[in-house]
Amino acid sequence: MAPVTTTSTTTTQRTVLTGARVVLPSGVVEGGRITVDGTRIAPNEQAEQATHDLAGQGCTIVPGFVDLHNHGGGGASFTSGTAEDVLTAVRTHRAHGTTTLVASTVTESLDFLAKQAALLSELVEQGDLAGIHFEGPFISPCRKGAHDESLLRHPDPADVRALVAAARGAARMVTLAAELPGGIDSVRLLADLGVIAAVGHTDATYEQTVEAIDAGATVATHLFNAMPPLQHREPGPIAALLEDERVTVELINDGTHLHPSVLELAFGSAGPARVALITDAMDAAGFGDGLYDLGPLKVEVRQGVARLVEGGSIAGSTLTLDTAFKRAVTLDGIALPDAVQAISANPARLLGLSDRIGSLEPGKDADLVVLDGDYEVVGVMRKGEWVVRPA
């Protein structure tokens, strides 16, 4: 396979890719064809000459990846960075195939989060981000993970409403511990506002989790992580979240957060239609080992694993979605269409964007990833423009 050439974006008027395996909603097509007209996928016309003939190279074309839960990358943070920092992180993840990305925050004061939400909302309006995810401060101190305990607070509906309002229509998801005072009322509020209520960083019982789902919670924030483990007499939130057809479960497939057998358990229990592969990435994603800030906390990254300097808790990941996808299909035995569903179609549906992204169909945005025979990224297109151009 020829080396990847990373380019500045160049507008593509009409592009025809042929000779690759193409993953469509209807199944996998060998020697398929994708036609791009401007920013959209167009119906195929067999008479057209290929712009990129990928025959004989073992390539696979999949929809652009959609990340629901991402705190940064390329050495830059969504939580505390400037607009240019945010764009640095966005560009880093785009080069790894993530064509749609939701910016996640970490626990800070409400005033700080409101100011950052105002900045992020401008980038949502510009089309650089797909929305904002507030992870904290409405989470349990018992399951705080890499969040500053001194800044945690109960999910008072008035505070939740104010934070959502600060995002000026860009809020897409709020993670909270529904068992805390005000939790269930806040879940109902978020559902009424059209914002995803996600159960996470929680110490809830099975019964409390069921109540939260009945109130409108539809996502499990990084299932298994930052919640009580599954036990045979105290099933806790994991069993409730896995068994309910209304819930989509986030999974961090980096080999650190989840054992492969646990990933297999989640896929088998929830089914591929209810899994969303995420990164939970922090600044070091696509950047390297070293010392970083995660909100007000210090993080050390060694050999690609991020942990708090004080206490040693895992502090997000250094994952990019191309790595999560490759692991799923080459190490975890996830069928190619199921992995595509979990990394593109399902998160697009949750964001209410499945009419535009998440699958390779005529009329949708020309967001796609070209992978070589080893499932390494060799091409990324977003809205008809090459972010990474196949050599």
From TrEMBL:
<dbReference type="GO" id="GO:0046872">
    <property type="term" value="F:metal ion binding"/>
</dbReference>
<feature type="domain" description="Amidohydrolase-related">
    <location>
        <begin position="60"/>
        <end position="387"/>
    </location>
</feature>
<feature type="binding site">
    <location>
        <begin position="314"/>
        <end position="316"/>
    </location>
    <ligand>
        <name>substrate</name>
    </ligand>
</feature>
<dbReference type="InterPro" id="IPR011059">
    <property type="entry name" value="Metal-dep_hydrolase_composite"/>
</dbReference>
<dbReference type="Pfam" id="PF01979">
    <property type="entry name" value="Amidohydro_1"/>
</dbReference>
<feature type="binding site">
    <location>
        <position position="201"/>
    </location>
    <ligand>
        <name>Zn(2+)</name>
    </ligand>
</feature>
<dbReference type="InterPro" id="IPR003764">
    <property type="entry name" value="GlcNAc_6-P_deAcase"/>
</dbReference>
<keyword id="KW-0479">Metal-binding</keyword>
<feature type="binding site">
    <location>
        <position position="146"/>
    </location>
    <ligand>
        <name>substrate</name>
    </ligand>
</feature>
<keyword id="KW-0378">Hydrolase</keyword>
<feature type="binding site">
    <location>
        <position position="135"/>
    </location>
    <ligand>
        <name>Zn(2+)</name>
    </ligand>
</feature>
<feature type="binding site">
    <location>
        <begin position="225"/>
        <end position="226"/>
    </location>
    <ligand>
        <name>substrate</name>
    </ligand>
</feature>
<dbReference type="GO" id="GO:0006046">
    <property type="term" value="P:N-acetylglucosamine catabolic process"/>
</dbReference>
<comment type="similarity">
    <text>Belongs to the metallo-dependent hydrolases superfamily. NagA family.</text>
</comment>
<feature type="active site" description="Proton donor/acceptor">
    <location>
        <position position="280"/>
    </location>
</feature>
<feature type="binding site">
    <location>
        <position position="233"/>
    </location>
    <ligand>
        <name>substrate</name>
    </ligand>
</feature>
<dbReference type="GO" id="GO:0008448">
    <property type="term" value="F:N-acetylglucosamine-6-phosphate deacetylase activity"/>
</dbReference>
<comment type="pathway">
    <text>Amino-sugar metabolism; N-acetylneuraminate degradation; D-fructose 6-phosphate from N-acetylneuraminate: step 4/5.</text>
</comment>
<feature type="binding site">
    <location>
        <position position="257"/>
    </location>
    <ligand>
        <name>substrate</name>
    </ligand>
</feature>
<keyword id="KW-0119">Carbohydrate metabolism</keyword>
<dbReference type="InterPro" id="IPR006680">
    <property type="entry name" value="Amidohydro-rel"/>
</dbReference>
<dbReference type="InterPro" id="IPR032466">
    <property type="entry name" value="Metal_Hydrolase"/>
</dbReference>
<protein>
    <recommendedName>
        <fullName>N-acetylglucosamine-6-phosphate deacetylase</fullName>
        <ecNumber>3.5.1.25</ecNumber>
    </recommendedName>
</protein>
<feature type="binding site">
    <location>
        <position position="222"/>
    </location>
    <ligand>
        <name>Zn(2+)</name>
    </ligand>
</feature>
